[in-house]
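Example S7 (structure tokens).
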């Protein structure tokens, strides 16, 4: 099978790399005579970054982009309206991403200077792409990745009906060392209250910023789009904006700025016709407010490449690709239109209700980009024994209700220091040791209180900050990191204040330990303080505390230890028609989901008595299928199923 890709931008290069990795013959055709690095920058969530890491697994090239710590929305007086932490977002320059992708695809797979003209057909099936320079490329499958104004889409489906250009953007790049001192890792946006006018700036390096001005094209428009005309236009209509805006404009080279006419079109009923299929903006164009266009393009590429590689029937692969991606992109089209409407209807608007112009695929959204029905805000602490006791329940929720329940982890700050701790009967480390022994015997989860005698922790703040540093790097691995340091303190009697243990845990779960240390000493402390502030605002005093809510904003709270039935009861109240998944209790499947388990967790997930679970685990250990750490109060069983 030979795949001909038309368009050598991000979508085309990404699917070219994925297909090549799957040993499928591929040629990428780019209309430009050289590497197409025009364009400025965009925001990308960790979902898209994860795909770039997947692409890069064989090459280990440095991933492009700069981490963005937060989003700040302000009015034209500079007063902050919204401030959100963004630990899983990067700003990536388009030129850097294109160079990154080019490095992963050898030059012989890319043909430049090929501007698409039309297809040659046998019957209704395309057999070759013809380019304006006279080149002809034969193939079995043709992928249109040629952008929002796709020629492939036009010759295959006919013209689409674009929405009117009500909002325009002017985009530029400025170098400003002074501004970088106060805006080094923040996506800042200023919005005028009485009209559709906004200015945003995002750092792309220590002194470089990508900026954009969004404006209601029905109210404003430059008299000319020359560099001089754009400069005068921007400075005039942004004159009342804060001083930082003027500083950015003064250091901008308007010769590289341009006007972007924002528009979209309705979701297509299919992304393919015969053996021609569309991906990225060619398949679905959303307004830029969502910051989802690039991520959607690379998700398209991965999804389509995967299904082409596992079936000989390309029509089945195309249908599966559409089924998996259409809901998500339609959600983004609607989301972009919602933000556009809010942007244009500024008069009398409640600023507190302004939608944050960022959307991600996972986390609060499932694979189809739809927000999960139930959100859980989980306040926990690395040394909270009760939080350790509910691990089996949380893991069962993950297996049975993950399609509908999203859990966000927040640190609560259980032990600032022993001098500032005064809760119940626990006043000193020896009291904690006794409590852990009692809890372990009652609930059959391993907790070894001797750590409080042999090497007591004087605070839970350092491991909490380390968890926030892990979240800044990778939210999924952060949960694994939290699990690992809990095992260390509860079962292995390790003082997880010490960096050596935090470092080892980071390495074990695949985090960058050097970066973890940098963030631990830096920005993670601010994220931890934000969690403490939120906990104080919500009146959280006990751990665990879990706030359950649904889209209708119905809420329930769980405090302290509760049975699994209580968790299920709340889930069913918030979503009466919820359908839980059946758990595949084959040990290999359970260990695939959770590579490290206690006896009680394995028993609970398998729905068998603990003694029976122990026998199964010992048998697996003797066969070499799993390893174990044997503590004084119990074992941690470690999967070896994937080790050859």
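Recovered sequence:
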């Amino acid at each position: 099978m030979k795949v001909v890709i038309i368009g050598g931008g991000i979508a085309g290069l990404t699917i070219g790399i994925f297909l090549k990795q799957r040993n499928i013959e591929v040629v990428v055709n780019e209309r430009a005579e050289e590497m197409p690095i025009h364009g400025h920058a965009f925001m990308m969530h960790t979902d898209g970054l994860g795909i770039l890491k997947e692409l890069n697994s064989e090459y280990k090239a440095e991933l492009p982009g700069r981490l963005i710590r937060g989003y700040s929305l302000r009015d034209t007086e500079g007063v902050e309206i919204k401030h959100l932490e963004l630990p899983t977002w990067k700003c990536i320059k388009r030129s850097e991403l294109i160079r990154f992708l080019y490095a992963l695809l050898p030059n012989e797979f890319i043909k430049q200077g090929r501007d698409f003209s039309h297809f040659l057909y046998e019957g209704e099936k395309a057999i070759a792409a013809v380019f304006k320079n006279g080149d002809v490329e034969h193939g079995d499958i043709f992928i249109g990745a040629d952008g929002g104004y796709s020629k492939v889409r036009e010759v295959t489906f006919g013209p689409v009906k674009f929405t009117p250009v009500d909002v325009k953007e002017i985009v530029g790049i400025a170098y400003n060392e002074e501004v970088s001192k106060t805006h080094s890792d923040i996506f800042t946006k200023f919005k005028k209250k009485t009209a559709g006018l906004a200015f945003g700036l995002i750092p792309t390096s220590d002194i470089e910023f990508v900026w954009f001005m969004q404006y209601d094209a029905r109210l404003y428009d430059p008299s000319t789009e020359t560099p001089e005309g754009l400069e005068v236009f921007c400075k005039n209509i942004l004159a009342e904006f804060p001083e930082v805006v003027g500083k950015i404009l003064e250091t901008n080279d308007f010769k590289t700025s341009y006007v972007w006419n924002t528009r979209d079109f309705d979701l297509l009923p299919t992304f393919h016709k015969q053996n021609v299929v569309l991906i990225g903006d060619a398949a679905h164009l959303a307004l830029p407010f969502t910051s989802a266009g690039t991520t959607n393009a690379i998700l398209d590429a991965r999804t389509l490449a995967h299904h082409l590689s596992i079936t000989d029937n390309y029509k089945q692969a195309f249908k599966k690709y559409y089924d998996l991606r259409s809901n998500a992109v339609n959600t983004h089209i609607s989301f972009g239109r919602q933000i556009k409407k809010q942007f244009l209807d500024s008069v009398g608007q409640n600023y507190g209700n302004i939608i944050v112009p960022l959307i991600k695929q996972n986390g609060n959204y499932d694979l189809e980009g739809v927000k999960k029905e139930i959100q859980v805000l989980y306040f926990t602490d690395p040394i909270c024994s009760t939080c350790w006791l509910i691990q089996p329940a949380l893991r069962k929720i993950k297996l049975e209700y993950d399609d509908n329940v999203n859990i966000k982890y927040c640190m609560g700050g259980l032990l600032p220091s022993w001098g500032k701790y005064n809760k119940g009967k626990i006043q000193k480390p020896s009291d904690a040791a006794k409590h852990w022994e009692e809890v372990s015997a009652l609930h059959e989860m391993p907790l070894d209180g001797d750590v409080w005698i042999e090497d007591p922790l004087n605070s839970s703040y350092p491991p909490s900050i380390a968890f926030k540093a892990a979240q800044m790097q990778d939210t999924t691995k952060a949960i694994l990191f939290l699990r690992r340091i809990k095992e260390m303190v509860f079962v292995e009697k390790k003082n997880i204040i010490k960096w050596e243990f935090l470092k080892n845990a980071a390495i074990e779960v695949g985090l960058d330990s050097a970066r973890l240390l940098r963030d631990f000493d830096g920005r993670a402390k601010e994220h931890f303080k934000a969690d403490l502030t939120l906990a104080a605002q919500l009146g959280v005093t006990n751990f665990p505390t879990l706030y359950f809510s649904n889209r209708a904003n119905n809420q329930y709270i769980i405090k302290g230890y509760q049975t699994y039935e209580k968790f299920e009861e709340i889930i069913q109240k918030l979503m009466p028609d919820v359908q839980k998944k059946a758990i595949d209790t084959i040990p290999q499947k359970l260990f695939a989901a959770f590579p490290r388990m206690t006896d009680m967790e394995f028993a609970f997930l398998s729905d068998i008595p603990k003694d029976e679970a122990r026998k199964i685990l010992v048998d697996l250990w003797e066969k070499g299928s799993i390893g174990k750490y044997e503590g004084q109060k119990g074992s941690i069983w470690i999967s070896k199923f994937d080790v050859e």
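Notes on this example. Residues 361-370 have pLDDT under 50 and may be disordered.
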